[in-house]
UniProtKB/TrEMBL annotation:
Protein name as it appears in the record: Pyrroline-5-carboxylate reductase
This protein's pathway: Amino-acid biosynthesis; L-proline biosynthesis; L-proline from L-glutamate 5-semialdehyde: step 1/1
NCBIfam families: proC
Ranges for domain Pyrroline-5-carboxylate reductase catalytic N-terminal: 7-103
Reactions listed under catalytic activity: L-proline + NAD(+) = (S)-1-pyrroline-5-carboxylate + NADH + 2 H(+); L-proline + NADP(+) = (S)-1-pyrroline-5-carboxylate + NADPH + 2 H(+)
Length: 275
C-alpha cells in the first residue's frame, strides 16, 4: 500500500501517463484517487474500463478536483494548456504541479501558471512503459518533503527515481537515461547483424542478443561489482572475449559514449531555449 494517498489528476492521457497510472494501480494506489483528462474519448474510455478511474474531456474539471496535477501533454502544447488552467482553476497555489514534459524550465511554468506554485519536473525514460524506468526529478524551492515523498512514490511505481540538485542535471540525465535506451538498441542491432553475418537467422540472432542484454543488465543490477569488474569476470586472459573486447577498445567505445552524451546534452540545452 502507498505511504501517501493524494488525489492525482493527469492532464493528457498519452502513453506515458497510461503507463504511470497502470504502475500505480498495480502497486496498490487507490483507483478512486486517480483522475485523467484528455481531449478525445478513446483513451479515457479504456482507462475507465480497465481501472474505473474518473475521467473527463475537460482539463479544468480534473485539475479542480486534484491535489496533484501531472502535466502530461507535449511540450509545444504546454503554454496553451497551462494558461487555460491558470484562467479557470482556482487555488493552483495550493496544489502540487508535476510536469513530465521535456525541455521546459521552472521559469516557463511560473510564467504560465503564476509564480506562487510548487513545481516538480520529472524526466521519465521510455522503459517506464514496461515498469523498468528511470526518472530524474528536480523540485523548486517551495516543494515540501511530503511532496517529494509523494512524487518519489508515484514514479517508483514504474521503476526507480533519482532526485537531482538542479535543472541542468535534467539535461544530462536525459542524455544518459532518456536517450540511453536508443544507444543500447543501436548496439544490440550491431550485435544482431554480426551474428547474422556469421550465419545465424535473424530470429535466433535477435533472441541471442536480447537474452544476453537482459542477463547482463540483471547481473549489473544485482551485483555490487563495478561494470568494469563484471566485464573482467567474463574475460579470461588470452581468451576469445579478450579478443572481442580488444576490438571495442581499439574503436574507443568509451570515447564514443562520451561524444554521444556530450552531443545529446548540447541538444537538450538547445531545445530548452525553444520554449
Ligand atoms: N513517452 C515517453 O517515453 C516520454 C518520456 C519522457 C517524457 N515524456 C513526456 O510526456 C509527455 C506526454 O508524452 P506521451 O508519450 O504520453 O505523449 P502522447 O502519447 O503523444 O500523448 C499526448 C496526449 O496529450 C493529449 N492532449 C492533446 N492536447 C491536449 C490538451 N489540450 N489537454 C489535455 N491533453 C491533451 C493527446 O490527446 P489526443 O490523443 O486526444 O490528441 C494525447 O493523448 C510529453 O510532454 C513528453 O515529452 C514522454
Amino acid at each position: 500500500m502507498p505511504n501517501q494517498v493524494r488525489k492525482i489528476g493527469f492532464i493528457g492521457a498519452g502513453n506515458m501517463p497510461q503507463s504511470i497510472i497502470g504502475g500505480m494501480i498495480k502497486g496498490g494506489f487507490p483507483a478512486d484517487a486517480v483522475l485523467v483528462s484528455n481531449p478525445s474519448r478513446p483513451k479515457l474510455d479504456l482507462l475507465e474500463e480497465k481501472y474505473g478511474l474518473t475521467t473527463s474531456q475537460d482539463n479544468h474539471e480534473i485539475a479542480r478536483q486534484a491535489d496533484v496535477i501531472v502535466l502530461s501533454v507535449k511540450p509545444q502544447l504546454m503554454r496553451e494548456v497551462c494558461e487555460d488552467l491558470q484562467a479557470n482553476v482556482p487555488d493552483l497555489a495550493n496544489k502540487l504541479i508535476v510536469t513530465i514534459a521535456a525541455g521546459l524550465r521552472f521559469a516557463s511554468y511560473y510564467e504560465f501558471l503564476g509564480d506562487n506554485i510548487r513545481v516538480v519536473r520529472v524526466m521519465p525514460n521510455t522503459p517506464s512503459l514496461v515498469g523498468a524506468g528511470l526518472s530524474g526529478l528536480v523540485a523548486d524551492s517551495s516543494v515540501t518533503d511530503d511532496d517529494r515523498e509523494f512524487v518519489t512514490q508515484v514514479f517508483n511505481f514504474v521503476g526507480t527515481t533519482i532526485w537531482l540538485e538542479d535543472e541542468d542535471g535534467i539535461d544530462v540525465l536525459g542524455a544518459v537515461a532518456g536517450s540511453g535506451p536508443a544507444y543500447f538498441f543501436e548496439f544490440m542491432h550491431g550485435l544482431q547483424r554480426a551474428a547474422e553475418e556469421f550465419g545465424f537467422d535473424p530470429e535466433q540472432a535477435r533472441l541471442m542478443v536480447q537474452q544476453t542484454a537482459l542477463g547482463a543488465a540483471k547481473m549489473a543490477c544485482e551485483s555490487e561489482l563495478s561494470f568494469i569488474d563484471l566485464r573482467k569476470q567474463v574475460t579470461s586472459k588470452g581468451g576469445s572475449t579478450a579478443k572481442g573486447i580488444e576490438a571495442y577498445q581499439q574503436a574507443e567505445l568509451g570515447e564514443i559514449s562520451k561524444r554521444a552524451v556530450g552531443a545529446a546534452v548540447a541538444r537538450n540545452q538547445e531545445m530548452a531555449k525553444l520554449f
